[in-house]
Amino acid sequence: MQLSRIAVAGASGLIGGALVKSLAADGVEVVRLVRHTPRNADEVRWDPEAGRVDAAGLAGCDAVVNLAGAGVGSRRWTESYKKTIHDSRVHGTKALAEAIAALDTPPRVFVNGSAMGFYGETGDRVVDESAPAGEGFLPELCVEWEAAAEPAAKAGVRTAFARTGLVVGRHGGAWGRLFPLFQAGLGGRMGDGRQYWSFIALHDEVAAIRHLLETDGLSGPFNLTAPEPLTNREITAAMGRVLHRPTLFTVPAPALRLVLGEMAGDVLGSARVVPKRLLESGFTFAFPEIDGAIRAAA
User: ∠ at Cα 2 (145, 277), nearest 5°?
Assistant: First the structure.
């Protein structure tokens, strides 16, 4: 599918910034959704928490990508911040979906962010897109987040959900915090290290989103994770190996719970998530293994 004009919410984030750069390099016109008063012709005003978007700015877009949301790992999960995380995703998605549905000529595709947190704690069990939602704050959030896109789907817009894993990127997200620690020789496993981390290289994350945008017929949930999830212990070893640094430190589970509170469950929890539908759709990973993903980011 040839797309010439795409609106992106969350364009200033790790994934959104990389996606915009990739699209622009191929000559795609990118419209950025911004919270401030637009300063350029390529900006459209919106307020995700309040559920408001300037729908007129989306007119003429072939596709809309929504990657916006308050950082899950940015702060301790107080009740107030959990509400911010929720509202920035659910209200923002609903506003975009309703704006899309109201257009005389809606875009052909809507790719909405989601997360592998949909599945919750999976232990050693491998899960793909057919698995049900788990229990807890993140699974419940993901269910609401995806449901909020329903107005677009009902309007006949092909709607896909990017259930993203841990993105291996140096300048943002959870991995952005890991790189300086490991490069300083302070890295190590978290808890017992047996929990699975389903990762994806930033390059592959962007390529997968573009695959969802540009491939006709792809709708519903897609796990954006590398084919072979690894344990935290294995990833720790890979970080040390690629960066040539010792990995002697260990962060005990009680210490993580003390510092991170409820969010520690996300760090210590195990998510063995595989991209079954993405692979079946013909997508090819450039960095399917952790060493390559780390090198690409470093």
Answer: 45
Backbone angles phi and psi of 215, in degrees to 5 = -105, 115
In the prediction, which pLDDT does 266 show?
58
pTM of the model: 0.95
* pLDDT single digits (tens) 236-257: 999 999 999 998 878 765 655 6
The amino acid at residue 224 is: L
pLDDT, average across residues 94-102: 96
Which pLDDT does position 269 carry in this prediction? Answer: 79
Residue 259, pLDDT above cutoff 60: no
> In this structure, what token pair is assigned to residue 129?
């897109």
Q: Is 46 part of any domain?
A: yes
pLDDT value at residue 187: 84
34 backbone dihedrals φ, ψ, rounded to 5°: -130, 155
Tokens of 265: 């469950």
User: From CA 39, how far away is CA 22, in angstroms rounded?
Assistant: 22
Model confidence at 4: pLDDT above 70? yes
User: Which CATH number does the domain housing residue 103 bear?
Assistant: 3.40.50.720
Count structural domains, the chain.
1
Residue 169 lies in a domain: no
Burial class of residue 71 (count of CB atoms within 10 Å of its CB; 0-12, 13-18, 19+): middle
Residue range(s) defining the domain that contains residue 207 = 5-164+200-224+275-282
